[in-house]
């Protein structure tokens, strides 16, 4: 028998899957992929419309949604980017999902994306883009880091499921073990050090939350991570990053020039309340310098503005609080790890990477869904 949420989940899985696909890696013209932004918008609007069918909303909820959409439209107009608009629409649509459905849908989308993308790569339809870095592979994904991020999210959701479900069958454990062979291969071949390190940090956070029993200590440490990581990102916007031999210079080398690029964008653009249009350069050559903001917090401030920055961080703080209130504390390691991940990658503020954006039911419902 088909679940009453089947079509909602189906659209969500398709939306999450399609959001990962990059037009850059296709060898041939494709009218659908060449208009991928419109396809994602269409799927988002369908997802949003279905959410009203599956979930009744009060007048207060409706007014709250209108305010958020107006804010995101203002940000999109100033930044000349639809990213924040799409993110807000996704969060509002996901209010009709349960927490476990949000995790499962994202997990399922990662399986589909990996199978389809790698299959198209093997058949010669997709290219192996490596950003001119020897030893790194994308196997059909838009870039190696996207492959790394996809595997990273797959792994943390799988580990979350295995740790929460106390009655894992032998078959589940066997399949989960066997699937590590190709997944770890993809992760290592992607050369995405940020995804590899954050996967290790996720395991450390899981273990630490079991060791530390005092709730006040946990609350303090967890809030410090969610708020502290973006705060540290701001403090590191310092010209010391370009002083040879300085502590920040050495840290920048370790972080593959991320601190320098954050400082360059900050000096050139500064921060605006509602965001601004900025120019990225992905092509490294003798005449062009690679210019991209990997730090999601600096990207939010420079590109999308102070309002977007506060909204995204505030959202994570509220979800953490609601997770504790409704006994969903098993998602807290996800929140903390992705907050750290935001220091080195933009995936923190992308709904197809960060599963927390699919858990807005914790905010909208008086009694959160399981």
Characterise this structure:
With 370 residues, the chain is an all-alpha fold. 65% of the residues lie in helices and 0% in strands. It is built from 16 helices and no strands. Helix 7 runs parallel beside helix 10 and helix 10 packs antiparallel against helix 15. The radius of gyration is 20 Å and the shape is globular. The protein starts with 5 loop residues before the first helix and ends in a 6-residue tail after the last helix. The mean pLDDT is 87.
Write the layout of secondary structure elements.
Layout: H1 6-20, H2 31-34, H3 36-54, H4 59-79, H5 83-93, H6 99-122, H7 144-164, H8 170-178, H9 180-190, H10 193-211, H11 215-235, H12 247-254, H13 258-269, H14 296-325, H15 332-341, H16 361-364
Helix pairs in contact: 1-3, 1-6, 3-5, 4-5, 4-14, 6-7, 7-9, 7-10, 10-15, 11-14, 11-15
In brief, what are we looking at here?
This protein is an all-alpha fold and 370 residues long. It has 16 helices and no strands.
Task: List its traits.
mainly alpha; 0% strand
Question: Which word captures the global form?
Answer: globular
| Tally of helical segments | 16
Order of helices and strands: HHHHHHHHHHHHHHHH
Overall strand count: 0
Strand content: under 5%
Oligomeric composition of the shown chains: single chain
Question: Which class do the helix and strand fractions yield?
Answer: mainly alpha
Main beta sheet, described? none
**Low-confidence runs of at least 5 consecutive residues:** none
Binned, the helix content reads: 55-70%
Radius of gyration: 20 Å
Which whole number gives the mean pLDDT?
87
For the termini, the CA-CA separation is 20 Å
